[in-house]
């Protein structure tokens, strides 16, 4: 049977959803590992990563069940949700690739302002820095009042910006790659949904 046939479309869609399931489980595992080893203390960051992993896992399960049973309704909702995720992820990935240094500073400032004090302190400890772009905005200064520490302290914002461009390029590139796999999943779902199962009743309506 040629690759455009029913069986090939089914196997390709199942394989793609298995990959999505593995990625979702990996995100959940990494978040749990980071929390367990104390790498990230913010429950919001951990919860966000786990939520993304669970969401991806649920989409993959719906797509996998729909592909295995050729379920029209599940395949329809699967391709609609996946297309919405594609639009969102494609836009975010393009924004990451197009972001300049000034926009990176604005993003860091807004993100730093929303962080909990414990998360800021963890970042300052791990990066060996203080504050973002102002040495008075540091948890070490508030907790320790260490003047000598502040004199020789490197700003966290400076360290972050040194690697932000490269990190955003990697993030944008990976996001674009996964967004194209998502549009591939939508195309496979549409194609597979409109194909007739050769083992089914020839007079049955799809």
From TrEMBL:
Belongs to the tetraspanin (TM4SF) family. The keyword Glycoprotein applies. The chain crosses the membrane at residues 12-33, 45-68, 75-100, 170-190. This is Tetraspanin 31. It holds the Pfam family Tetraspanin. It is found in: Membrane. The keyword Kinase does not apply. It comes from the Eukaryota. Keywords: Glycoprotein, Membrane, Transmembrane, Transmembrane helix. One of its GO terms (cellular component) is membrane. InterPro entries: Tetraspanin/Peripherin (IPR018499), Tetraspanin_animals (IPR000301). It is a multi-pass membrane protein. Signal peptide: none annotated. It comes from Oreochromis aureus (Israeli tilapia).
